[in-house]
TrEMBL record:
The keyword Transferase applies. GO terms for molecular function: identical protein binding; L-aspartate:2-oxoglutarate aminotransferase activity; L-tyrosine-2-oxoglutarate transaminase activity; pyridoxal phosphate binding. CDD domains: AAT_like (cd00609). It comes from Salinivibrio kushneri. This is Aminotransferase. GO terms for biological process: L-phenylalanine biosynthetic process from chorismate via phenylpyruvate. Its EC number is 2.6.1.-. InterPro entries: Aminotransferase_I/II_large, Asp_trans, NHTrfase_class1_PyrdxlP-BS, PyrdxlP-dep_Trfase, PyrdxlP-dep_Trfase_major, PyrdxlP-dep_Trfase_small. One of its GO terms (cellular component) is cytosol. Gene3D superfamilies: Aspartate Aminotransferase, domain 1, Type I PLP-dependent aspartate aminotransferase-like (Major domain).
Length: 397
């Protein structure tokens, strides 16, 4: 029966990790998948997470099922992180949150919700965007359109082109925005631009959807939510997919959240009841551990302060690596100006390297980066910096 099935292509990001693992070269460098590494090239469990896990081990008294959307404590903690502790959307009970298996699970819930309940609408994604966005929304049966985001010649955002494209969207269409640390470019809208985008969505009757996977990796947990919080003031309805893979380092626990904001409590509650129906037929109810860790940390002032510091340390190390990367490229004789890399936010840098250069980096130097030219800056260390920059200098020659 299976003889007619052909092999699927490898995933452009996770497939790269497999290739890297199979590479026997000892000096190989993995700057593919978005995983934070410390100065020793390791991804250890955050100490605040370890402490929370010790508490949970002691306190946990059942492995019984969670409810379909997870616990109310987790939902509230997620909302407070997104909107601020005393936000109107929370106090007015216009927000509902479902604990999802990772940020991808949240996006898939969003996709299914849109397809089943919002009719024949198009999802607008940025060009470029995270490699999995297309797959997730296509799998939900939704048509996609792209809006311009990046000007390769300037290595910068192209806000005018973005707005011009979004002006073409029809009322009811969904606009997917990256809450911060745009993946893959690392370039985010300014507050004025967020405001203009929110007004555009409101004026044209578009539904904003935020993919918020890197909160805390640009400037800080509160600061990074500025765009989303502007939208909550301007747009009455919103969808948000959160991930805690990166900011809590809980990658393999698959902990995320899908948050729906409605115009009022009644509409939000009714719409959210449909989200529960969708989750039930996909994964039934979520895995408990990762969300229990997040809830424990966010609801304990001491642990939260420790986590915020650990997050700041990750953010600062990445910033240091950006500066060092630009400096070392210069020192290796690279004449092309890479200073834009210091202005980008989050884990990634859109290097401008083309496909041939990306392939040569892998084949000739054991340096793995995503095909689009996206580099995971969080994988750079003082040890791999010179070999990395030497390899880049060679492929640019
Ligand atoms: C990435 O962009 O590298 C991460 O979000 C990991 C993934 O699932 O692709």
């Amino acid at each position: 029966m299976f003889e007619k099935i052909s092999a699927a292509p490898a995933d452009p990001i996770l497939g790269l990790t497999e290739e890297y693992k199979a590479d026997p070269r000892e000096d190989k460098i993995n700057l593919g998948v978005g995983v934070y590494k410390n100065e020793h090239g390791e991804t250890p469990v955050l100490p605040s997470v370890k402490k929370a896990e010790a508490l949970l081990l002691d306190r946990e008294n059942t492995k019984s099922y969670l409810s379909i959307p997870g616990t109310a404590e987790y939902g509230l903690a997620v909302q407070q992180l997104l909107f601020g502790e005393q936000a109107d959307v929370i106090n007015d009970k216009r927000a509902h949150t479902a604990h999802s298996p990772g940020g991808t699970g949240a996006l898939r819930l969003a996709g299914e919700f849109i397809k089943r309940h919002l009719g024949e609408v198009t999802v607008w994604i940025s060009n470029p965007t995270w490699a999995n966005h297309k797959g997730v929304f296509t799998a939900a049966g939704l048509p996609l359109a792209e809006y311009s985001y990046y000007d390769a010649a300037k290595n910068d955002k192209d806000f005018e082109a973005m707005v011009a494209d979004l002006e073409k969207a029809n009322a009811g269409d969904v606009v997917l925005l990256h809450g911060c640390c745009h993946n893959p470019t690392g370039i985010d809208p300014t507050e004025q631009e967020w405001q203009a985008l929110a007004e555009l969505c409101q004026r044209k009757g578009l539904l904003p959807m935020f993919d918020f996977a890197y909160q805390g990796f640009a400037t800080g947990v509160e600061e990074d939510a500025a765009g989303l919080r502007i939208f909550t003031k301007v747009c009455p309805e919103l969808l948000i997919a959160s991930s805690f893979s990166k900011n809590f380092g809980l990658y393999n626990e698959r902990v995320g959240a899908f948050t729906l904001v409605g115009r009022n409590q009644e509409e939000a509650t009714k719409a959210f009841s449909q989200v529960k129906t969708i989750a039930r037929v996909i994964y039934s109810n979520p895995p408990a551990h990762g969300a229990a860790v997040v809830t424990t940390i966010l609801n304990d002032a001491t642990l939260k302060a420790q986590w915020l510091q650990e997050l700041a340390d990750m953010r600062d190390r990445i910033k240091t690596m950006r500066t060092e990367f630009v400096k070392t490229l210069k020192a290796q004789g690279v004449s092309r100006d890479f200073s834009f890399i210091e202005q980008q936010n989050g884990m990634f840098s859109f290097s401008g390297l083309n496909k041939d250069q990306v392939n040569a980096l892998k084949a000739d130097h054991g340096v793995y980066i995503v095909g689009s030219g996206r580099l995971n800056v969080a994988g750079m260390t003082h040890t791999n910096m010179v070999p990395l920059c030497t390899a880049i200098a060679k492929v640019l020659d």
